[in-house]
Amino acid sequence: MVFSSLVFLCIFLPVVFFLHLALPGIRAKNIMLLIASLLFYGYGEPVYVLLMIFSAFANYLFALAVGRMEQKKKIILAFAVILNLGLLVVYKYAGFLVSSINGMFGIGIPVPDIRLPIGISFFTFQAMSYVIDVYRKVNPCQKNFGKVLLYISFFPQLIAGPIVKYHDIEREIGERKQTLPEVAEGIRQFIAGLSKKVLIANTMAVAADTLFASPEGSINIAVAWIGAVSYMLQIYFDFSGYSDMALGLGKMFGFHFKENFNYPYSSGSIREFWRRWHISLSSWFLEYLYIPLGGNRKGKVRTTINKFIVFLCTGIWHGANVTFLFWGIFHGFFLMLEEWVPFFRKAGGKVKQTVMHIYTLLVVLVGFVFFRADTMAQGLYWVKELFTGFHFERAAQSLALTQLTPLYLTVLAAGILASTPIREKVKRFKGYETFSYLVSMIFLVLCVLNLAGGTYNPFIYFRF
């Protein structure tokens, strides 16, 4: 089940929300939320819900053992990490690894056909962070398995993030309140995220998916730029839209998750971009990989290597494809460039800020071309056409012009505007609160009409 579906909006969410309001006591509310979350995941993954429960139970036992066996906690933690990463390797990377080995050595090992469980990267990282934090004594081990399972399986953040740390919501699992202002703000934030996904991301997805599926001979500079910009907006409004929906749903039920996106396309460097993009993932790698590797405490060369390793792993985390691996290396390269080249570290005026902003957007756009491409060859061809595709055959021109419908151009303008911090400025005006709720209701109606009309509604997290 996904948030941008009529089943979720018209049946699942209203029923769960009103049950949460009506049930007396936090224990009854938690039991209901746990059952609802398992049903939510089981709706699309009836078999793999057992895998998620197994993962949660195994990490629950590891955390108990870490908390009780001080002298052996390093060994226990090592087993926990091996199990969690092992699950990812088996379910997410086994086919890719076997295919790569077959291609490298010319052998014919049967490639396992294992369907990827939705959200496995998210719930595995949450489970690992829980055990690691118990090891570090950031939070005590939780003796109630039901609370651990609720933390890992809670439906707002289960299949698309953000990655939530246990200590951030530990208190709210045991004690929380639903207040009218918080619920109202949660509903508004959920609708904002839903609008990002349904009205902007889905519209951009039509153009992006059409163009990236087109034969190479029909791609020129116009097609390449329309496709690349469309995907750049699609992935931002899809990712940030789901994060906003998760944060809004959390507030509706009395939980508070941390922001996951902070206008990343307004960044002036790749370093700043990663402080604003998918913040929960960046902070996860910072806390559980970069700092244990030594962080920036062991000299400039070691710091650069550590950052490169982190971004290599970031690319691998996103999926079992060479394109994801390259995307991580690509961002790691520009982070190293910014670390070593003095130009990037020196302060500058408005001209330099503009240049840096354009540079950042170009790097991000080119990176996303590879992220979206099915193969490295396709990614390289598209990047070549982005900058040298000055050929204007009728087929290419027709393909480009057919995307530029009035709807597309309107949504494109809205998406570019909404990707800037303009909302933060508008919030200062008197009457913003009342006006924003009115606009939210209008957007909700538009989203429901779009979904009821069967418009294009891809779920890109199947790849992750």
TrEMBL record:
It comes from Candidatus Limivivens merdigallinarum. The keyword Transmembrane applies. The lineage of its organism: Bacteria, Bacillati, Bacillota, Clostridia, Lachnospirales. The chain crosses the membrane at residues 48-66, 75-94, 114-135, 219-237, 308-337, 358-383, 403-422, 434-456. The keyword Glycoprotein does not apply. GO terms for molecular function: acyltransferase activity. This is MBOAT family protein. Keywords: Acyltransferase, Cell membrane, Membrane, Transferase, Transmembrane, Transmembrane helix. It is found in: Cell membrane. GO terms for biological process: alginic acid biosynthetic process.
